[in-house]
Amino acid sequence: MKQRIFGIETEYGLLIKDKDFKYGPVDVALQLKDYIFDVGKKGLLDQHYRANDEPPGNGGFLTNGGRIYLDMGHLEYASPECSNLVDLVTYDRGGDMLVQEAVESLGWQDKVAIIKNNVDLETNATFGCHENYLVSRDFKFENRENLRLLSSFLVTRQIFCGAGRIGACNPHPFRDWAEAGVDDSKEEHVDFQISQRADHIPNEFYRWVQYNRAIVNTRDEPLSDPGRFRRVHLLVGDSNMNEFSNALKMGTTILMMDLIEIGAGRAEWILEDAVGTMRKISRDPSFKWEITLSNGKPSTALELQWEIMETAKKHLAGSGYETDWILTEWESVLNDLSKGGPEAVLDRVDWAAKYWMLNEFRKEEDLPWHDPWLKSLDLEYHNLNKNDGLFWGLEENGDARRKTSDEAVERSMLTAPRGTRASGRGELVKSLLECPASYLIDWIGFRLNKDEPFLMLDPFVSYKDEIKEIVGRLDIREPAHGDGIEP
Amino acid sequence: MSDPLRREEKKDAPSEKRDDGPKKPDVSSPGKDNILKRMRKVDPKQSEKYKQRTGE
Predict the structure, then answer these.
(1) Which residue has the higher pLDDT, B54 or A152?
(2) Distance (Å) from the alpha carbon of B27 to chain A's nearest alpha carbon
(3) Going by fewer Cβ within 10 Å, which terminus of chain A is more open, N or C?
(4) What does the alpha-carbon distance between residue B20 and residue A298 come to, in Å, rounded to a whole number?
(5) Is the distance from CB of A42 to CB of A414 less than 8 angstroms?
(6) Do B5 and A328 lie within an 8 Å CB cutoff?
(7) A42 pairs with which residues across the strands?
(8) What gap in Å lies between CA B38 and CA B11, rounded to an integer?
(9) Residue ranges per structural domain of chain A
(10) Which residues contact A178 (CB under 8 A, 6 or more apart)?
(11) pLDDT at A473
């Protein structure tokens, strides 16, 4: 079975519910971060600059091998490197719970809500959920046909992994060059769409992340041995509340990359206009999701996903338990979407659950889609407070399929996953919490005091024995600020 | 396979549900009432208080 590594970065939204609360969202993010490190002792704050906008103390690594930091005014969590999908959804949720736990420990749960979504429905500010996949350097990322195949998959996968939203981003203020994307000069009325991010992606390929976001982000920053590995870093997806949807999103995407790597992707899957199609699928109120392929043939997102899934079955079935799980559930969700529509998948698909809830509420209260209450309910779906958040009501009722357990999530808040270098990093952070020293820690290694940097270039290796030995001979000497390994 | 994470995955494996075909939620179940109760508690204006910056 092929070895895999996954990771997710989540930027959280922050809602100040109490208008008289003494702090604004940026201050609250800062205080939560400080609480997690200084009081909660969940990790070590950086002692060094990581970038001009990441001064010492801006964030740090956790005992679970992941990272919490401030980025563009948002509190952000990067999961540790995970070798399988169960670990991935467990550690993703572990990050959510670390942040929510800090809110509750500070007694702010009635005043502040952490919202795991990707858009401000009033201003259309957007913030991301970034997916990370480790692939071999043999994956031909510079080949444009490969990128277009990946793009076609990403544009159509939103039918089972979008988080849904009320309304639309009209017009599109994010474009800063005229020829990018499609003509968006006219406003379109949208009640509900299946993706949070579709309106915010104006390009098919690009390497930047803040503006001119692309379906396929082409930044090449492997955070590992660049001769052996590539980290595919995607920002096109929505944050998922449903852990099953999260697993299916990442699982189907890695299988698509496997198909591309073995040359099993087919040119007829390429879309005529990927950027326009992304928005068209997301906004289609009939859920028919019609598309046009680059060869001019009409099809649907469901049919294209079905073809990709069947090809994956042909080439990859039987190669491991996880692969077979992905293939089975991919087929099941496509089958149910085609026969039963949103209501048939609301236990596995966030947008479908949200759509069902909002519709039921609208009927009960006789509200139009554009009523402001609906926007507020949309946000509440993503509230991480289990007593209030609407998603948690579904999970509590047994109407949201699980992929992990609360016990595993609780453990993930403190302990790193096995099978990757995150376990070594987690042990290092735990040791340094007990035995203070000067340190510089990054994804690819660390340096203690003025010793030589220790590199962790192979993400599949834990490095635990070496780290234990290094920590064992630790004594407190002069700080190592000012030089060391690059982030 | 002694990892509790993997044991949980086995426990939740959906194979026994797979042949049921698409199912609609039971909208008369207590689940719907519970969700609607949560929904009615939400401040109708809270979206206006959600002031976020573009991130990444």
Answers:
(1) A152
(2) 9
(3) N
(4) 31
(5) yes
(6) no
(7) none
(8) 29
(9) 1-116+405-487, 141-212+241-381
(10) none
(11) 85
What does pLDDT average to in each consecutive run of 10 residues of chain A (487 residues)?
Answer: 89 94 94 98 96 93 98 94 98 98 98 96 89 91 92 98 93 48 67 94 79 83 95 95 98 96 96 95 97 98 98 97 98 94 94 96 96 97 98 94 97 98 98 92 95 96 96 65 41
Planar angle of CA A242, A244, A247, nearest 5 degrees? 115
User: Which site among A76, A339, A375 would you substitute to test the B interface, given the most B Cβ atoms closer than 10 Å to its Cβ?
Assistant: A375
The two three-digit tokens of residue A203, written as one number? 């390009």
What letters, b where the CB count within 10 A reaches 16 and e where it falls short, cover A263-283? ebbeeebbbebbbbbbbbbbb
Q: Where are the alpha helices (DSSP H) in A169-320?
A: 243-261, 274-283, 301-316
This prediction's pTM: 0.91
ipTM value for the complex? 0.87
Residues of chain B with a CB closer than 8 angstroms to some CB in chain A: 3-6, 8-9, 12-15, 18, 21-25, 27, 29-32, 34-36, 38-39, 41-56
Q: Are A7 and A78 in contact (CB under 8 A)?
A: yes
Pull the structure tokens for residue A281: 């699928």
In whole angstroms, give the CA distance from residue A216 to residue A142: 12
Question: What distance, in Å, lies between the first and last C-alpha atoms of chain B?
Answer: 37
Structure tokens at A10: 């989540």
